């Protein structure tokens, strides 16, 4: 039976209409839309074979690559009670596969293929940026260096991101400053005593793990304070923006050449690190029992790391927010955003909202700082943007957090609500910024909120290169 008066039929019809106009050389996105449309209708076909074939093909499209998975989530309607049970179940399964595909593909390393013969390093990095989406910022001059062209020759074939970057930076005698611009790798001249990057670290998916220092301590008064500390740096591809990393010490093993294992000093501890916006790496110290004096190196150190990685971000919009019937709920992926109210109880406007994430784990309980970095602003019909002046936390659970964003619209004439009386001390000649005098009707503003559509908890196994002891 065909779906009548349902969201699925409406979406399928719209996509079919668009598909009829798709030319042969259309973009991959348009071609995907054209194929998804009839498959949505086929989910309610008369025979089980047709329905199964449609679901199977949608699964293929939803798991082909990260881009295809994200597009599938956008095109597939949210299952609801107006749909037949079979269609609803199929959509739930396909959407879940797409979300898992995004999580799986996002944790794999980007790949780089390029061949450069005496090309300026900036051109080589630009090609890596084109292939991976990673951004680079040349900060040599800020650190007292020279931003010279520095031509290099490299040849890379399907090389993992960090291996490719290390090869290029070694060729150009550059290094990474881990506390630079958000979402970009900040590059500086390599220190005179710095070792090459290639061979100094191990790569685990999109992560780069490098031992930085090793220190042996002997407790003279209290032997229990004796220990061996290994400080490591965990860096990640800029596209990831992890929320937090944790290393369970009971899963860390350090072996000496004889095969004996060094016991972690705190095996019941988990080293939990919350990423700060702008950081591209974090440092953590692994502490072990002190080995016998004759031990000259750690042959291998391995363990498991759990990375909390946000999914693809989505932009939620509420047009004419001052007239919206609240509470107003929007959902995308595992994220649900609720507009509770938009009002002016005092000197400033307050926008009360809640964001909920399904399967959030500790991302909203113990590690909620990333939510506070989400963009939340108002725009008018001309596209002028009004940033919030701050926010307050109004509620919090393990999967949901409520915020009240404060907006000061007094810098412009506000119409329609009777607030913001003319200032008696205003510039009589009208020489102030003309843009500030443009009338703003809060009822006509659009609220824009950007957030991750879910949080994926991904286990990463790692193993370090051999480490010589002091």
Task: Describe it.
- Strands 9, 10, 11, 12, 15 and 25 form a six-stranded antiparallel beta sheet that branches. Strands 17-18-19-23-22 form a five-stranded antiparallel beta sheet, with no helix packed on it. Strands 6-7-8-13 form a four-stranded antiparallel beta sheet, with no helix packed on it.
- Residues 1-7, 9-26 and 416-436 have low confidence and may be disordered.
- The chain is built from seven helices and 26 strands.
- It is globular and about 75 Å long.
- α3 crosses α4 and α6 (121-132) runs antiparallel to α7.
- It is 21% helix and 35% strand.
- The protein is an alpha+beta fold.
Kindly summarize this structure in a few lines.
By secondary structure, the chain is of the alpha+beta class.
Question: What secondary-structure arrangement, pairings included, does this model have?
Answer:
Layout: H1 7-19, H2 28-42, H3 48-63, H4 66-75, H5 85-106, E1 111-120, H6 121-132, E2 135-138, E3 151-160, H7 161-172, E4 174-177, E5 184-189, E6 202-204, E7 207-217, E8 227-236, E9 244-248, E10 253-255, E11 261-262, E12 270-274, E13 281-288, E14 297-298, E15 300-310, E16 313-318, E17 328-332, E18 335-343, E19 349-357, E20 376-379, E21 385-387, E22 390-396, E23 400-407, E24 446-452, E25 455-464, E26 467-468
Parallel strand pairs: 2-5
Antiparallel strand pairs: 1-3, 4-5, 6-7, 7-8, 8-13, 9-12, 9-15, 10-11, 10-15, 14-26, 15-25, 16-24, 17-18, 18-19, 19-23, 20-21, 20-24, 22-23
Helix pairs in contact: 1-2, 2-3, 2-4, 3-4, 3-5, 4-5, 6-7
């Amino acid at each position: 039976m065909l779906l009548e008066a349902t969201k699925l039929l409406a979406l399928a019809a719209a996509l079919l209409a668009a598909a009829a106009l798709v030319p042969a050389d259309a973009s991959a996105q348009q071609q995907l839309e054209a194929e998804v449309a009839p498959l949505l209708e086929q989910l309610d076909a008369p025979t089980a074979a047709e329905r199964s074939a449609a679901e199977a093909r949608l699964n293929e499209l939803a798991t082909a690559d990260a881009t295809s998975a994200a597009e599938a989530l956008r095109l597939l309607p949210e299952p609801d009670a107006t749909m037949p049970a079979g269609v609803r179940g199929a959509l739930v399964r396909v959407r879940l596969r797409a979300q898992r595909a995004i999580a799986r593909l996002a944790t794999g390393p980007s790949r780089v293929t390029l061949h450069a013969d005496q090309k300026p390093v900036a051109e080589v990095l630009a090609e890596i940026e084109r292939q991976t989406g990673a951004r680079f910022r040349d900060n040599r001059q800020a650190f007292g260096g020279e931003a010279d062209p520095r031509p290099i020759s490299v040849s890379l074939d399907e090389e993992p991101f960090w291996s490719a970057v290390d090869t290029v930076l070694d060729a150009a005698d550059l290094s990474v400053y881990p506390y630079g611009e958000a979402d970009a790798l900040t590059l500086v001249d390599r220190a005179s005593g710095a070792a090459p990057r290639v061979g100094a670290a191990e790569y685990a998916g999109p992560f780069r793990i490098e031992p930085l220092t090793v220190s042996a301590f002997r407790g003279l008064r209290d032997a229990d304070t004796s220990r061996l500390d290994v400080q490591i740096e965990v860096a990640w591809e800029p596209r990831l923006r992890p929320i937090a990393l944790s290393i369970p010490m009971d899963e860390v093993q350090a072996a000496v050449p004889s095969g004996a294992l060094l016991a972690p000093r705190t095996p019941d501890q988990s080293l939990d690190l919350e990423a700060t916006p702008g950081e591209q790496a974090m440092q953590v110290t692994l502490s072990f029992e002190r080995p016998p004096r004759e031990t000259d190196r750690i042959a291998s150190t391995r363990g498991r790391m759990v990375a909390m990685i946000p999914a693809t971000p989505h932009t939620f919009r509420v047009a004419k927010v001052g007239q919206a019937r609240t509470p107003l709920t929007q959902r995308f992926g595992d994220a649900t955003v609720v507009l509770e109210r938009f009002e002016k109880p005092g000197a400033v406007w307050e926008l009360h909202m809640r964001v909920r994430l399904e399967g959030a784990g500790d991302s909203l309980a113990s590690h909620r700082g990333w939510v506070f970095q989400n963009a939340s602003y108002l725009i008018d019909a001309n596209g002028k943007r009004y940033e919030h002046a701050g926010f307050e936390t109004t509620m919090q659970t393990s999967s949901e957090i409520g915020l009240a964003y404060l907006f000061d619209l007094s810098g412009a004439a506000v119409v329609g609500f009777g607030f913001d009386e003319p200032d008696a001390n205003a510039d009589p000649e009208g020489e102030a910024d003309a843009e500030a005098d443009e009338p703003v009707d809060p009822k006509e503003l659009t609220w824009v909120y950007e957030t991750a559509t879910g949080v994926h908890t991904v286990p990463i196994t790692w193993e370090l290169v051999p480490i010589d002891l002091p």
